Every structure is written in C-alpha cells, then in structure tokens.
Structure prediction request, 306 residues.
Amino acid sequence: MGDPAIESLGPFWETVVNNCNVGREHKKSFIPFKLEGEILGYIHPRFWERIKRFEKIFFHDPGDLRIGTGNGWITLHPTCNSTGERTRQIDTILRLLENEKNITDWRNELCPVVTRFDGHRYFSIERAALPFFGIKCYGLHMNGFVRMNGKDFLWISRRSKKKKSFAGIMDNMVVAGQTPGGNCKEKLIQKALAKANIPVHMAQKAVSCGHVSYEQCNGLKMKRDVIYCYDLELPPDFLPFNNDGDIEDFKLVSLADVAKLVCTPGQYKLNSALVVMDFLFRHGHIHPLQAGYIRLHESLHSGDNH
Prediction:
C-alpha cells in the first residue's frame, strides 16, 4: 500500500504540478525559434521587439501562407553559419541586453543549444538567457535517502540566503545544472562532494532512475527543463556538510514530512518537488488505488522529453 500519511494526491497537483507548468496555455503565442529546419526554442513577441533591431543576427521569416506556415519563425542571419560565430555574435548582443536590464540573473555560464540531450550543438548561450529564447535546459538532482527501521527518510537541504534564486527555501540534497552531452555520473560525483561532502566512493553508488520534465510560460520567458534523477542510499550515520556555500544546512526527514513540505506553497523549490514526487512513486509511497495516480504520474513528464 501507499504511505498512509500521503492521503490525497490533490495537493501535489495544486502546489507542484500546476505551478511548475504554469502558463503552458500561452505557448501558442510564442514565436518558434528555428535553425537548420529544427525548432530550438520559442520567443515571446515582446522579447522579439527588443532584439529585432539586431537585424544582422536575427530576422523573422514570415513562412509561406500557401502551405500553412504563415505565422513564421525567428531564425539567425545566414552569415551566422558556424557554431563559434553564432556563439560570439549572440553573446555580444546578450551582454548589451543584460546592461539594459532586459536579461537578469546573469550567470557567466555558456550552455550548448541542442534539441535533444545527445544532439548536435548549434551554438552556446548564456544560461540566464535560455528562458528568453525558450531553449531547453538540463539538470541533475540526487535523492539521498536512509532506511531505518523499515522506513525511508530523505536528506533535504536549505538553500543559502545569498542565492540569486529561491534563496532560503528547501531543496533536494544535490542539485546541479548539466551540460547537454556531458557525463552525468561524473558531474554528479563532483557536485555530491561540493554540495554535501559525499565522498567519491559513496557517490559512485548513485543510481540513475529516470527523469522529470516541465514547461512553464511566465511573462516573456519560457522554461523547458529536463531533470535527470538519481538515488543514493546513505548509511544512517552519514552527516552531510556543504563545501561551496550554496547550502545553509541539511535535515533528515520522513517521507510524510517531505510530502507536506513540497505541498506547502513557498517551502520547497518547485522543480525539485517534482523529483521528490518521482521518488515517492518509484518507492511505493504513492499507490495505484489512490485517485488520480496515473494522471499525476504522467504529469511528471509534461515537458519536452528528449
């Protein structure tokens, strides 16, 4: 049976799934961003108004009304015909937009632009700009769990109050961005040490166990994120410690208490809550006899699953 403390699945919808995927109904108002025949992302018309002045880089192709592509798409100028040149020219424009406050939370981190995790890299772009272009972003999350007296407990973290986003709220034990095409396990081992002081020999035992995805339209931004999930069973006497300043502290909590946290608005980072939900499903704490089981499970993959 499922965990008796998780009586209703409704709060997972109301607090987590709906908010992670907020505004999806507005996706049709965004303009596709295409290159070499592939859709790389989606751009809001108001953001297009801010970048169309850079006509040597971006231009709007109206499409062909005769074959039903009359809404058109945004693409790059043909002179931007190499990965390096595209990256260089777009980065110059983005830095100008950042100075104008049209792009916020600059990370100074270039991310490859792909249509799938193992796909061709078209160019690279500053991480803070990804949602303004509706470009897919990938991440890694690890559930660190402990089994005691036949019950599962999760280690969760409180984000540093100095973080630029979601400061001071609860999060998963290990969370990191992931470069498309990169080695996920190597990155996880590196971040497990930095985030929670998990030694290499322990982190190597982490098990890949799927992914979650979501799609969110918020103002001028569209987030299209895929998160790869890992589980690591830790010994009861292990005590995590943060090494990079991103985390205030850790708590070992029962799954019932984690479920309450993720369903309490403003208490848990939203996309991380999807990963917790996935853990609850996979470890049998949500049961098929609970109303809405299948629909809620399907909702964990609401985004672009490539």
In short: Residues 83-99 form the longest helix (17 residues).
